[in-house]
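Support request from a user on the community tier.

User writes: "When I paste my structure tokens into the form, the page sometimes reloads and wipes my input. The last time it worked, I copied everything first. Here is what I submitted, just in case something in the input itself triggers the reload:"
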């Protein structure tokens, strides 16, 4: 009996790892009902299992856009303590012009307070995206871009991480109960400044989980999924999806073999990403032919970055 109970207590976690939140909730409730009907577990235990399963499921899907924004804003603040922003109005306006256009073509065009794009003053080759829609690209990474289509590919990849909620999925399961309790008491749609501070204090652990994940890198499957989203967005806007491959080719030459910082640490090797992008798209690389006006705009904004 004890063994069965132990198994059933593990059931929500096991199912969570195997399937999506809603699917997990349905499967676990069904399995618990069956176990209760057959007399394997007491009714009170069944209620408890269902309660904890709903809690897990609600946390992963239950952040409101506002809560994601405030979590993301705190993650962005941590990133900005490590990397200063690049004070070029021209470069930042350019990045925002491209970024806003790409975001509107994504499957998640509207988020609370919108997307924001910023150039970081660092030679490191890297980019970051927070769940709140803040996207950062270093000067080092922009130097890997031979054309605007390549810059668009980087931004579309980062929008992909946000759209697929990769940052939110980095939150450790151990934070689940705390987060659920906080969410349950936060009924306001828009948080006032004081409430926002209290919110970020409560979510300190959550913020640190996401920041750690951003710095250490997502899984390879997340990276390839973000590349897939990027290709879709680029096509919708009218950019050449080969821009992503063009950027990765330059990056491959610039990254040193034993490099353990920046993009080398947070992303699969450029060659692996190139192969995967081409394999999934079922095509071969053809160099990007950027229209003259587009290339002139690119060179003027970030050509000497
Ligand atoms: Zn990525």
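"...and here is what came back when it finally went through:"
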């Amino acid at each position: 009996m004890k063994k069965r109970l132990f198994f059933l207590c593990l059931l929500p976690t096991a199912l969570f790892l195997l399937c999506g939140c809603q699917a997990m909730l349905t499967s676990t409730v069904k399995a618990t009902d069956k176990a209760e009907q057959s007399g394997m577990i007491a009714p009170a235990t069944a209620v408890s299992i269902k309660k904890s399963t709903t809690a897990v499921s609600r946390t992963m899907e239950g952040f409101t856009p506002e809560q994601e924004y405030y979590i993301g804003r705190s993650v962005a603040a941590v990133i900005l303590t490590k990397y200063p922003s690049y004070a070029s109005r021209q470069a930042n306006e350019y990045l925002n012009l491209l970024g806003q256009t790409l975001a509107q073509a994504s499957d998640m065009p509207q988020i609370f307070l919108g997307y924001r794009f910023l150039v970081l003053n660092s030679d490191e080759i890297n980019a970051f995206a927070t769940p709140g829609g803040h996207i950062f690209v270093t000067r080092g990474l922009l130097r890997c871009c031979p054309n605007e289509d390549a810059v668009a590919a980087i931004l579309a990849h980062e929008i992909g991480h946000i759209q697929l909620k990769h940052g939110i999925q980095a939150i450790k399961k151990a934070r689940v109960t705390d987060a659920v309790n906080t969410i349950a008491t936060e009924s306001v749609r828009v948080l006032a400044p004081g409430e926002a501070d209290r919110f970020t204090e409560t979510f300190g652990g959550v913020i640190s989980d996401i920041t750690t994940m951003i710095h250490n890198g997502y899984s390879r499957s997340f990276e390839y999924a973000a590349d897939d989203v990027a290709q879709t967005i680029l096509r919708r806007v009218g950019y050449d999806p080969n821009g992503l491959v063009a950027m990765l080719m330059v990056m491959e030459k610039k990254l040193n073999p034993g490099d353990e910082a920046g993009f080398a640490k947070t992303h699969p090797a450029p060659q692996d990403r190139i192969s995967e992008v081409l394999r999934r798209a079922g095509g071969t690389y053809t160099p990007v032919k950027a229209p003259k006006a587009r290339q002139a705009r690119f060179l003027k904004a970030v050509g000497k970055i």
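Agent notes: The reload is a front-end session timeout and is unrelated to the input. The first strand starts at residue 116 and ends at 120. Residues 43-61 form the longest helix (19 residues). Escalated to web team.
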